[in-house]
Design brief:
14 helices, alpha/beta, 700 residues, binds zinc ion, Pectate Lyase C-like, Alkaline Phosphatase, subunit A, 19-stranded mixed β-sheet
């Protein structure tokens, strides 16, 4: 009894204690994804892996060791050296030649061997879907090793068994090898649809392991490591193509730098020293790798930021991370906005942001948010809160679905934003929002962009939205910029929307200048270029006063509101739309309901009549405003004044009108004369424009 106690004391004094160093993580969960090549990461649908990338440090440039096969590379990750040292040159299940060093278990020292040396009582487990891993890990060092055969039916048996172990044993060091990606690479081939289809399945297994860590209550003390042994090309690997040689390394958790891209070169044998550094393990003399520079203290950023952008040359974080409040990023400067865009493009497509100030991008070339395609659009809410983005500039080359834009693909909400700057259109769907698909809402967005569609072939480009999908809604938006189309460009161009297939467009105004020239073939409209209505759409309460000019050799359609409306159905709601007479030949082109495009002259527009009509005679809960004498036409800004109609048919901003109307109800003053401001005239003068109100001359 006494002897046991003494031994325990001895152990405490001279052996490491996993809980001794409070600043270090106490658990490392190492997830090996066999056969995942970095070439696939751009298209990979792997939200859990992306979460770890974004929240931690990563590189997609980790180099495999030669040969680019499984056993040699897993061995290097565990053993901190290349194949020339550890001796595993094939998948034969044993060393091909004598290693440079072996430990007491007869194997080249692994990170697992080093863990056991330091922590005799620590918990360490290994799960694998390929039992070739067994000979590489120094099995005797482990508390638990388990092989769970990979099944083509895509079951998650290995991940689930491992998750159970994590929940029960809370391992300090844990490794799992998941084999499905490599299987698909050999079966259907690398870089094939089947390969990309396997990635989310394996990502789900990563999620099961992450959940287990959370369930075990050790999340805050854990570092996750994700690594791969090789990529592949065709139906295999082992060669020296970059598709085989480039692999991801992702590390995330306690003490690890967040949002950091590892820029130093990294090789498989740097993995073991990195894990050793996390757990405070001794790195044996025979190792050759170096720990990756991923630790928070190594990356402490003391750099200078101006407008949220780092001004030093060696910045670890070039853009200032915005504050997060109530689940919403608070964007206060250019760096915050660029950071947010990168974050969304990282795969966080449902995060929200509000602008807390006007943001001057200073002409920095913008990478569209969710530019790639419509299958992974932005799903969050971006609220400008009435602020402006200034000096926006985007000339991003055309993508699969969208071109140059602020948000390429939108399935969420963009609202309360003004945007100034320039877009160079390229390919399809260029605008503030390239493509707004079903369920999206673009509301109270005011574009002052100069949109240049003359440089490259482009189509379906608008002042606010390039293309508006089925069921999408745009309300209370305006365009006050220029849209210039020439060259080989073709199809829909509009002040608000380039082209739509059954969207809803309400309360929008074009004040901008739209021009189509040269060889371009435009469906050009002040609000919408082209409409193809298959199911339903609403087009009401819109206004065009901007000039819509088409001098192209083949001017297809040129109209003040809708360039070309095809296949109009009776159930479509087209009502209460107005345009300045002469802004284009007619309101709506094609087979549309032309009577619902109402031509107005300058006097009607400047005098308040059209504002009143757009509000359908309402003076509360209104959308359109106009400060008479200042605004030449209806505007969408609530800071401007409400338009009232006098009983004598004139329009005015006066609050007196309410009192006047109340007085009218008594029937006493119905024959009185009023000024345009609603003031009761006590005396007329010889000059028709001057009245006397309360003893003073006033202008009519
Ligand atoms: Zn492999
Ligand atoms: Zn393989």
């Amino acid at each position: 009894m006494k002897k046991t106690l003494l031994f325990a004391l001895f152990a405490l004094l001279f052996m490491g204690n996993i809980h001794a160093e409070e600043d270090k993580a106490k658990h490392v969960i190492f997830i090996g994804l066999d056969g995942l090549g970095s070439y696939a990461m751009d298209k990979a649908d792997m939200p859990n892996v992306r979460h770890l990338m974004a929240d931690g440090s990563y590189t997609l440039e980790k180099r495999v060791i030669i040969p680019s096969m499984s056993a040699p590379n897993w061995a290097s990750m565990f053993m901190g050296v290349g194949a020339e040292s550890h001796g595993f040159y094939s998948n034969s299940g044993s060393v091909s030649y004598q290693p440079t060093f072996t430990n007491e278990n007869g194997i080249f020292p692994t990170v697992f061997s080093q863990f056991r040396k330091k922590y005799p009582d620590g918990e360490m487990g290994c799960f694998m879907e390929w039992d070739g891993i067994r000979v590489l890990i120094d099995q005797k060092a482990f508390n638990k090793t388990q092989y769970v055969s990979y099944s083509k039916t895509g079951d998650q048996a290995c991940a689930e068994a491992a998750a159970k172990y994590i929940r029960e044993k809370k391992p300090n060091l844990f490794f799992i090898q998941l084999d499905q990606i490599d299987h698909v690479g050999h079966g259907d081939g690398h870089n094939t649809p089947a390969y990309y289809a396997a990635l989310p399945v394996v990502d789900k297994q990563v999620g099961i392991l992450m959940q287990a860590v959370a369930d075990a209550g050790i999340w805050d003390e854990t570092v996750f490591v994700i690594s791969s042994d090789h990529g592949g090309t065709g139906k295999g690997h082992g060669g020296i193509s970059m598709e085989e040689l480039r692999t991801p390394f992702i590390i995330c958790g306690k003490g690890i730098q967040k949002g950091h891209q590892i820029t130093e070169p990294m090789v498989q044998y740097d993995v073991a020293p990195t894990i050793a550094r996390i757990l405070g393990l001794d790195e044996p003399e025979c190792w050759r790798g170096k720990a990756a520079k991923v630790f928070s203290e190594a990356n402490a950023d003391i750099h200078n930021y101006v407008n949220g952008i780092c001004t030093d040359e060696d910045c670890k974080n070039p853009y200032e991370e915005p504050q997060l409040a109530d689940g919403c990023y608070q964007l206060a400067n250019a760096g915050n906005l660029i950071w947010f865009g990168k974050r969304v493009n990282f795969g966080f497509t449902d995060i929200n942001a509000v602008m807390t100030a006007d943001i001057d991008l200073e002409g920095t070339a913008w990478t569209p948010i969710c530019e790639r395609n419509a299958t992974n659009p932005y799903k969050g809410t971006f609220d400008g809160q009435g602020h402006s983005i200034l000096n926006f500039f985007c000339d991003a080359p055309a993508q699969e679905i969208t071109g140059a834009s602020f948000i390429g693909g939108l399935r969420g909400t963009l609202q309360n934003l003004s945007i100034h700057g320039k877009i160079v259109a390229s390919g399809a769907r260029n605008s503030v929002v390239g493509y707004a698909d079903a369920q999206s809402l673009v509301s109270n967005v005011h574009s002052y962009l100069e949109i240049d569609a003359t440089k490259m072939k482009s189509n379906d480009t608008g002042g606010v939205i390039g293309s508006l999908g089925v069921g999408a809604e745009v309300d209370r938006c305006s365009f006050s910029g220029t849209l210039t189309v020439s060259g080989n460009s073709y199809d829909g161009f509009g002040g608000i929307v380039g082209w739509t297939n059954s969207g809803r467009i309400t309360n929008c105004a074009n004040y901008g200048t739209l021009t189509c020239t040269g060889l371009a073939k435009c469906e050009l409209g002040g609000i919408v270029g082209g409409v193809s209505s298959k199911d339903f759409y609403v087009f009401s309460h819109n206004l065009n006063v901007g000039s819509v000019t088409n001098t192209a050799a083949n001017p297809l359609y040129t109209n003040a509101l809708i360039g070309h409306l095809s296949r109009c159905r009776v159930e479509n709601e087209i009502a209460n739309n107005h345009f300045l007479a002469g802004s284009a030949a007619q309101g709506i082109g094609g087979s549309g309901a032309r009577e619902e495009a109402i031509s107005a002259n300058n006097a009607q527009l400047s005098g308040g009549e059209i504002t009143y009509l757009l509000n359908e005679g309402r003076t509360d809960s209104i959308v359109w405003y106009q400060t008479l004498g200042e605004d030449n036409w209806p505007v969408l800004f609530a800071g401007h004044k409400t338009v009232y109609k006098s009983e004598n048919g004139t329009y005015h901003n006066g609050e007196d009108a309410i009192n006047m109307q109340a007085a009218d109800k008594t029937g006493k003053s119905s024959s009185a004369t009023y000024t345009l401001k609603g003031q009761k005239v006590s005396q007329t003068t010889k000059n028709k424009d001057i009245y006397i109100v309360k003893g003073k001359k006033v202008l009519k």
